[in-house]
Amino acid sequence: MYISKSSSPHPDAGIPVKRLKFVKSDEGSGYAEARNTAPFIKGPLPVAWLSQAAELPGKALHLALAIQWLSGMSKGAPVKVPKKVLATFGLSMDAYRDGLKRLEAAGLITVMRLPGQSPFVRVVQPAQLQ
Predict the structure, then answer these.
(1) Which domain holds residue 65?
(2) E strand spans, 18-113
(3) Distance CA 42, CA 90 (A)
(4) What distance in Å separates the CA atoms of residue 98 and residue 57, rounded to the nearest whole number?
(5) Is the dihedral of CA 63, 64, 65, 67 positive or negative?
(6) 21 falls within a domain
(7) Are 62 and 88 in contact (CB under 8 A)?
(8) How many domains does the chain divide into?
(9) pTM for the whole thing?
(10) Is residue 41 part of a domain?
(11) Using one digit for the tens of pLDDT, what is the confidence trace for 6-49?
């Protein structure tokens, strides 16, 4: 067994890797090259919903956009907001807690809190807004 004495813990780290994903097609299944796309917020985004969030103080709009982003990826299912997403949208834990309360009080989201867990958040659809 050969052990490299390089300073990198992973000597193969510099080798370019092509990412592949499993896809199904009409002809069968196989592997295809993964598209390298930048993250995006799935639309349509209701302007009435966004404007209500924008009127709230603090970073409520930042949190609203983060929740919309996660909700779009989960197809509307309740989501937990991980710390990495908070950092991506420039939110501290205090701003997160504050924004969650404000968005919930405005009726833009519903929050399910369970003991010892991060809250589950669901976007209230515009048809359900008062």
Answers:
(1) 47-128
(2) 20-25, 28-33, 109-112
(3) 20
(4) 10
(5) positive
(6) no
(7) no
(8) 1
(9) 0.70
(10) no
(11) 555 666 666 776 665 666 555 666 666 556 677 778 778 889 99
Report which residue type is found at 22. F
Handedness of CA 24, 42, 113, 124 (dihedral sign): negative
Is the separation of the CB atoms in 85 and 64 below 8 Å? no
Q: What is the pLDDT of residues 47-101, one digit of tens each?
A: 999 999 999 999 999 999 999 999 988 888 999 999 999 999 999 999 999 999 9
What is the chain's length?
Answer: 130
Task: Find the CATH number of the domain harbouring 121.
Answer: 1.10.10.10
Q: Spell out the long-range contacts of 19-22 with Cβ–Cβ below 8 A and sequence spacing 24 or more.
A: none
Q: How many CB atoms lie within 10 A of CB 64?
A: 25
Q: Select from 91, 34, 33, 87 the least CA-distant residue to 61.
A: 91
